[in-house]
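Workshop exercise sheet. Pairs work together: one partner reads the sequence aloud, the other fills in the structure field after running the prediction. Swap roles for the next sheet.
Pair: D.N. / O.F.
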Amino acid sequence: KVRNKNLAAFLSVVIVTVTIIGPGVLLIDQASREATEAVRRLQAFFGSAGWESTLNAHPRLGQLLSWLEMNFDLGDNLKSLAAAISSTAPKVIAASVQSIVLLFIMLFTLFYFFRDGRRMVASFIRFVPLPKAEVDLLVTGIAETVHATIYGRFAVASVQGALGGLMFWILSLNAPILWGTGMMLLSLVPILGAFL
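Structure field:
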């Protein structure tokens, strides 16, 4: 146990950064690379003659793509999608800078919550107009409910995303990390998330 509160709070922030934020950044980076590669492969597939043999092998897929080709110009749409992705790069960089600033603010705030959290909660509890026994019961109930809800949702979402990504990898489908991450994020959405 670290006796110095500042050092203990700093070490806690470092642990949070290393265990949660670091892997999260790597996961987002890999998922964005896979998305870019998927768009490039799709564009190359429609630019080559390989898609015609696929249409011949799968007649129903051919009917669907024929209808899409008649109603939408897939080649131009894919080119415009690639152009849109490249044109949004400066916006993504600007958003990344903003995200980094917000991340530093979050870590700075987290340091003080780790260091002075108990004192802050005690200050808030003094303003609650209830007897101490009832306040303690209320705080304990709220803390247990919040912990169970947050940990449960993130644990289930992580398992669903990991299993989905693993399934994509086992089946040798493209971009397993992208799809696993998407499954994880969608499973956090209430009601329809896991279904999507």
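Discussion prompt: The mean pLDDT is 78. What would you look at next?
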